[in-house]
Write the structure tokens for this entry.
Amino acid sequence: MTTAASADLWVRSYHPAPDATARLVCFPHAGGSASFYFPVSAALSTVADVVAVQYPGRQDRHTEKGIESIAELADRAADALRSHDDSLPLTFFGHSMGAVLAFEVARRLERDGRAPVHVFASGRRAPSSHRPENVHQRDDDGVIAEMRKLSGTDPRVLGDDEVLRMVLPAIRSDYTAIETYRAEPGAQIGSPITVLVGDDDPRTTLDEARAWEPHTLGTFDMKVFPGGHFYLTDHAQEVIAVLKAHFTS
């Protein structure tokens, strides 16, 4: 069980909002870190308390072994959120691997009667949509090639071989977790789901994104943006506007 002290390792707050009446929990993509959501936190701090999940094996957790299972990641993240503070209604936002993790954490918290009020799933096909993928089985150069292809990694990291080799184990762990993930048959949450996707995402077709709909007992919506897998870096303001509307409507 994650304690309140260790929860601080998992849950990062960059712009505390003590007067907020809602909380946004952000889940990073494979190879990503909590700081990816620093701009989101800055932009939404007037309407929500924004926190981001920090997975083991990166940044200040780089000495920890990465977790190679979505189920274990979800268990640990759910424990951390339980210990963090459950006084505010939660909204989840996850990109790519983070979308699946947000869904699985929502399932766990729902069992406790702490379901998020909404889940935003970005840049990821539905949990029930499976593709055979093997990035986690490639050599280091193969993993790096995939990172370059998707354009979601800080160019400073990709340009620094020493740093890159240091973070590769965590990245490989993330790819192992998401590529070996299989949703339970009929897995659903009660929370409404909004899917956000790029219209030219090589990892998620529009049909695969639309396949999220049966995974919710609530309402479903889908928003399509121009761009690829990391459409949200080019359309940050539009994505932030979607989230802001959720908190202010």
About this structure: The CA atoms of residues 49 and 118 lie 15 Å apart.
